[in-house]
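Whether sequence alone determines local backbone shape is best considered at the level of individual chains. We regard such an encoding as a compact summary of how the chain folds. The sequence in question and its structure tokens are set out directly beneath this paragraph.
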Amino acid sequence: MMAGVRIDKWLFAVRIFKTRTIATDECNKGRITIGGINVKPSREVRVGDIIEIRKPPITYKFKVLQLAEKRMGAKLVPEFVEDLTPKEQFEVIEMQRMVQWSGREKGTGRPTKKDRRDMEDFLDW
């Protein structure tokens, strides 16, 4: 049985990051913590560790159930990792998605004077 696996290898193996390089970069940027302490990519994870990953605007929380060095199929992931992310975090994403949808169409540029007058007329009504 393995004593520990590098955190960058484990994050890639359980499909949290698309590549090991991205997992390594996130560790180096200080976005990955274990027990509130920033970790280097070479830090070994052990069964039972709680890993927090900051991907703005939310922070994901995962518990290590088993160790793995090689990437696996998506169906096997639940045997190796448990998602402990609070539901409030996912609500933040949903709210952000709604706010973006209500804005102007992407690429339409700034409102024209006519657009501004139309908005003022509508709001004064």
